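User: Please run a holo structure prediction.
Assistant: Happy to. Please share the sequence and the ligand.
User: Here you go; the ligand is nickel (II) ion.
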Amino acid sequence: MRLELQTWPKVRDYLKRSKGIVVPLGSTEQHGPEGLTGTDHLCPEAIARRMGAAHGVLVAPTIQVGMSQFHLDFPGSLTLRPSTLMAVVRDYMASLARTGFERVYFLNGHGGNVAPARAAFQEFYADLSMAGRDADVKIRCKLKSWWELPRVDALRRELYGTSEGFHGTPSEIAITLAAWPEAIDEFKLAPPPSHGRNDLLEHSGDNYYEAADYRRRFPDGRVISDSALATRAAGERLIALAVEDLAQDYEAFLDSN
Ligand code: NI
């Protein structure tokens, strides 16, 4: 159930039975020579919309651009500054709180968004706490990246092992192959050369420097990932498990205090 395809009376009636909503959060950035720039928002969007349709859960308009400054040396990449993304997340929270929502589940598709999104939650709560309004406004936010959903995580490890890598991962490419078959073909290119362990540990969690440095380290855009292992069939399996996991995690979140 997409929020943008409802009328306000329908949303008012929804709020009588549920105070929850899912917000897909992603990015628009290069995903190697054969991956879609929208990969990181198309994946959480596809999972959230399928879960929402199956379980009658509202899904907000996707935040399609995230914190991707380190990809800007590749054409087609867009970024918000960390502070801009924080402002966007806070304004989503404020709007949803003002209109009656109390549980906002951000389903994330991009590692670079995690720190700004969590900081945005704390900014929002800090304003309430410091103004002494924390007893009035009851909004709870949760951030989960789709690859952390437990059965999805297990399947991607089983299918790809260390070839999963960190960017242009076969699991995310598989999901786009399944969700957007008209937009993307299965990959032909060999994986990028491996970099030392140090590069990986130093930069895990999208902890990169500026864009030119990223391009020097990862010239074709991918980080280790052997995207050519991705298939449409695997994408369908990953989406199906993600929908089930998300439904469970979302229900538990709704029931939490
Ligand atoms: Ni990605």
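Strands lie at 20-25, 103-108, 140-145.
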